[in-house]
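Researcher: Let's run the pair from yesterday's discussion. Sequence first, then tokens, for each.
Model: Starting with the first of the pair.
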Amino acid sequence: MMILIFISLFVLLGDCEEYKGKHIGKLNSYHHQVSGDVYAVDKYTILITGFNYDGNGADTFFWAGASNRPGPQGFIVPDEHGKTNVLGRYFNKDFTLTLPEKKKLTDIKWFAVYDLSSQNAFGDVYMDENFEPPATQVIAALSKKSHGVSSGNLQILDAKTLIIPDLTYNGAGKDTYFWAGVGPQPSTKGSKVPDEYGYLEPLRLYSKQTIKIELPGDLTIFDIDWFSIYDVQEKENFGSVLIPDNPNVPPSLVKIIPQKKALPNCIQLHKDLQASWEIFGPQITIQLAGRVEEDEYIAFGQSGSNSKLQMLGSDVTIAYVDGYRGFAEDYNITANSPCVKVLGQYKGVCKDGRVGGTEDNQLHTSERQDGINTITYRRILKSSDPGDKEFSPDGVTHLVWAIGKLDSNKEPAFHDLYPRGSATVEWGKSMHNCFSFTTSNRDLDKPWDRAKIIDKALRIYTATLGPAGSRRGYQGITGMPSGGLAWYINGLLIPEIWMKRGTTYAIRVFGGNNPHSAELYNPFIITDEPHGGLERRSEEVHRHIRALAGVQYTLRGQSRPTTVGPLCLARHNGVDRRLDDDYPTFRDFNKTLVVTCEPGEPAILEVTPNSTWPDIVYYNSYTHMNTGWKIHIVDTFNAQYGCACHLKYFPMIIILSLLLHLLINC
């Protein structure tokens, strides 16, 4: 009986080991203390773990060949650095080696640590005769149960990654997720799998889309029997596929960062974000942990509504790490914009102190490790600040959260990751659904083409507003965070413009003329620095900025905007703006927008660049930072500047909207 128990434990422990690929074997040790395990990662690559070699061979290399045994008929396998130098000393090292010149593991019969001068193998391992290296495995398609679910044959890319080709789902499920588990068929005894963007919220509509899914935390393809699109509320499987036993696939390249369980309760808000908490007496301790870049923030707090997700009126903490110092700052959201002055009062995403409140967060600890920010802070459950919401131990609380870039003032710019539906907690009840973080190289989407307007005959420009386009748009083009909106000049997203000194140009401005609006009041300005947003800048910063157009100064040296026109705004037409980066070009993205224009004549800003203007200046908004881009000031237009790059790219929908606008006001 005891023997059976020990065998069972041995099997369980074996199953819990990290999957490294297909085990080829242990190195046979002959000389110089050579040892280690050899795995096949894919058809070109091997992984050696726990490798030892004393480094005393005279002319020793990693060596492979197709003869019956190791000998001079072979070839050098470059070391872990891609070099073919004589091997040095190794002690318990793990590393990968890639066969040279596209040679495959199926082309060799053995791998060795071999000394050319003595023609001796210090250690070797042999390939099985019918050896098959790990490779992508193609399995069945999702079964077509209901809600229009269908797909092509799924591919198991590696131990943690699935590719679902041509996925279709009508999005009509009540509480539907990617779902994985064990057992003969999908059931409630499964767990959520984040979607292709890392979200853990109910699935959206899919129409013939090919997506890549990464299994969360420590979960691998060897831990599940099925993968499904599953409605948890209705306990219904809309479509699923069975996972074959022990598929021969490559190991995953992602690094798993074990979760640090410092507080008893935890909610996983996104693949890259989790919040933990504990209530003790009149205080709550909250820990935010997120996989973010060094210049990104985490926003977390309670919704402005007691019954749904609502950013307006919400009470949030903006948490980030700046160098060795952490911050957990108390913010209040009164408008969907960065914090700006509206008729003398601050509105937008503002620190509590700016809107008459108090800073109630007390920072406890902070650290940044393995690309993960972990920030712990405390606050009292019921604050006297009217802008703060109570952390009630009783009842359901709707949460808000986001991840985005910090601007040059170390304040939150528009968020890149944020929920479409609300997550809920009951602060007084136990909860723990968090999993380990995984780190891998993020796919960097190529920015959209940088638009240019170069036309020596052009004298009139039209400036309207529209969405900034996420990482491929404003951020990718300029390398700066966006406030959410950007200038569209002649229908192009923040184009670079060429102007000639001594020539007068007219800019027709449709940026919004309602000073009561924190988001949609955008006077047009030109300065010698790239950020704009003079309304938000300190007096010290103002002293170093030269305003060239659109700004006048009072006798006291205070700036005032001069060019304020009615609003002409492009908006998303029922499309989730979190998917902006899916569009390969700005033209494709722009086709999804709908333009509306308020009545009224545009404001006209006339500019005549002169010899005092720098060679590069910037157009922006007076109230919001990072809405525009460059103007090149030249003395003459060279021959290559003769092309017109403006009207032929001007979207027809904007042309029609502006024509209608003019007709209404004639």
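Model: Moving on to the second of the pair.
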Amino acid sequence: MFAKRSHLLNNVNLHNNNNNNNGNAKCHHDHGKCTDSCLQVATNVTEQKHHVTREIRGKNLGLCRGFRGCTVWLTGLSGAGKTSIAFELEAYLVSRGIPAYGLDGDNIRTGLNKNLGFTPADREENIRRVGEVAKLFADSGVVAICSFVSPFADDREMARKIHKDADLKFYEIFVDTPLNVCESRDVKGLYKKAREGVIKGFTGITQEYEKPEKPELIVNTDGFTIKESTQKVIALLEEEGIIPKTLRDVEKLPELYVQDSVKEAIINEAKSLPSVPITQVELQWLQVLAEGWAYPLKGFMREDEYLQTLHFNSILTEEGAFRENQSVPIVLSVSTENKEKLDGVSAITLNYEGKPVAILRKPEFFYHRKEERLSRQFGTSHPNQPYIKMVMESGDWLVGGDLDVIERIRWNDGLDQYRLTPNELREKFTEMKADAVFAFQLRNPIHNGHALLMQDTKRQLLERGFKKPVLLLHPLGGWTKDDDVPLPVRMAQHQAVLDSGVLSRDDTVLAIFPSPMMYAGPTEVQWHAKARMNAGANFYIVGRDPAGMPHPDKEMYPDGNLYDATHGARVLKMAQGLDSMEILPFRVAAYDKSVSRMAFFEPKRKEEFEFISGTKMRTLAKTGANPPDGFMEPKAWKILAEYYQSLSKQ
């Protein structure tokens, strides 16, 4: 038989054992029976009104304006999925600029309520305290997410009343997962102990759980992913106005390719319109836009989007609800001659190598202030920086507008199967049942130090409770400077690393990121992270001097580099509009001579480590010498060495 609840206690405060409450208190018990653990009620307290109103908090708290303070109360059996939903919901809200905090039953009982047991009276006091704390969170403008078994209906009603009396919204969510499912999960081994009689009064076994009669929502986690279950709570909060509908996840990114049904008509229209030629790099940017890497951009930037990018590294969403990170301008340049010829037309055809590839709608022309653009994006306008050189040689006008891209862009170089769009990558991660995706951006060959970093990241994610973290190994596939290793060689080298088992194929997706490389340091690394976020990654590994290069004037700075090696990672952690992505700092790896392998650098043993620079690696490869054992997978090294040796024969 279930143990039934025998009595209810009044709303009370714990008696101060040190007797220093500096005021009067009334005991509700016979004083002959009162002990140090006696519960008492203070009688000489008066509520103090805040000077800051909820409206003011709503205007200034978080990135998403408006007062959204409320409490979401998740109730259900142990193992039902309450905490999983709570933390998933918390992450969702915080990533969208809505302050939220998860108050978990276990966490509360190790701190605030560590002096309470599981008697009916202690259970009631546990919930009363949590209800009061949640009310304070909600009143401050935070969404308080409480995950507590809270088996008694009277206790939950008490928590609701605490909020009602304060004119705060309270949402009771019944996580209605069947007992047999909860028991089969038994993550903490509690059901087993309860069945064995080790734990007394365990809810669902020897203690009754009183199901909510009229909860705001019922969620069943059996047969559903945590994300799917959480989405039901998100939908409720959207309907209640807590979450603006403009912030909801886009399940499928809108692509800019035209539908097959109108493709022929678009091609005929393109042939009838005035046209401008575009370069290979501009075609790469067209692919980036068409596939959704730069979502929510709908085409080459108009002047307002361009200005926001240059000055804020972000753009406002259409609804103006919040800013999306967009740190690099994606623009199309035209000559003065073409600008004068095309100004005022309703649409322009973009041609690549004489073939129509897209139509630019409602074009908007604006002057290309190159020095301003370059100084803001690169921190220099030095003409010997290779991407800057291209910009300086481009047209004196920029033209923006929405795009209709005629067909998917293919390069026919034997690598198109690796050019997965953001939507295709999202589908791939879903098929793999990934619950975490960590992206690694690279434009260089992989050595065992990189592999160590990726292996260690996977280990950390598993330790944090993720079941299937997946690596997005994502080499940059657009334009790079002449002395970088070409994409086909890098892809063959990456495949050799996977073939060797250094990285597991079972939880790795090797794909090509179509963006050109700009070597714009901290500004560009934000773009690299944002694009991977659009593809479904929620963790991003950033290393030393990302997107950096030597300064064209080597005497300009003491280290000879264009950017400080630490700034990319530091800026990325502070960047606006990347809230749904966690930045993982790059741990420095070097060759550990004591064990003949790559290992994380330890300053205390610095004499035992060797840093093998890119210059030294290239020299070894060109001369046919091998690197130290354990530096790089041998077959991967062979591919790299053959490439460099082929250069010396030219």
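Researcher: Give me one sentence on the second I can quote.
Model: DSSP finds 21 helices and 24 strands in the chain.
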